[in-house]
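Q: Here's a chain of 279 amino acids. Please give me its 3D structure as C-alpha cells.
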Amino acid sequence: MKLDWLVRLAFCASLLLGLALVEPPLAAPSAPVVQRTELVVRVFARAKANEARRALARASVNLQVLRDDFYRASALGASDAESVTNERGEWRGSREVGPAWLIVRAAGFAKRALPLAAGDARSEIEVELDVARELNIDVRVENDAGELVALEGATVLVGEAGELPDASSTDASGRAAFDALAEGPVRVQVYARGYEPFIATTEADLLVRLRPVMGLVVHVKNRGVPQPDAVVHVAGLSLWPERVVRTTKEGSVDIIGLAAGSYSLYAEFESRVSAGLVD
C-alpha cells in the first residue's frame, strides 16, 4: 500500500510539472494603430489691392507629425508628385490625426507653417501665401589678432515668434541666406559651439558678432586644504536659476558656458559655508 501511494504521488507531481511547463503561446505585439482623416488643402496667392486672389498650382504640401516627442515627416502620398497642389491649387489626400505642422511652399512665395492641434479635425484648410523676400545673416567672430572673421557652420534660425522657423548654416563666407520669408520683422537666433547665443528681431539684413563663452575655475579649500565634493553655487543676471556644481577630488571645478558679466558664487561642504564672492 505504501508503495502504491508513493507511485500515485509521483504521477500527480509529474502531471502538475507537465502542466506548468505547457504555457499558452504569447500573442504577437500589435502594431500601433495610426488614425487618418481625409484632408483637402487649398493654396492661394494672397490678394493685393483691387485684385482677386489666385490659386497656386505646384505648391508643395508637407506634414510634420508629433511622434515620440519629436516632429517627423509624414507621407501624404506615394510619391513627391502626389504632395503638390493641382491646377486648381488643391491637394487632396489623408493625414495622420494628432499634433502636427502643415508646411506649404511655392516658388517665389514665403513658406507657411500652420500648427494643427491634437483635436483639430478639419477636413478642409485654406492657405494664403505672401510674395517672398530675401534676408541675409552674416556671422563674424574675433580672431586672436582682434580681427573680425567669418564663422562657418553657425546655426541660424529665422521666423516669427511662435512659428516654425527656417533653419540654415553659415557658409565659408559666414553667410546664411533665406529666400522664402514674408514681409515684416522676424526673430533671428544664432548658435555656434564655443560662443554665446545671439537673439534679435530684424526686418533687414543683419551682421552678427558672436562673443566667446566665458568660464570660471573655482578652487575650494577647507582650513587650507583642497576640499573634494564641495557644492559650488553660481548665479548672475544671465544665469538664473543658479547653477550648482561639485568640486573634483582636487578641490576645484571648471564652470564653462557663461556669458560675459558678473557672477556671485559661494561654496558649502557639510555644515561649513564660504563667504559670497562676486566675480
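Q: Can you summarize the key feature?
A: The longest strand covers residues 36-45.
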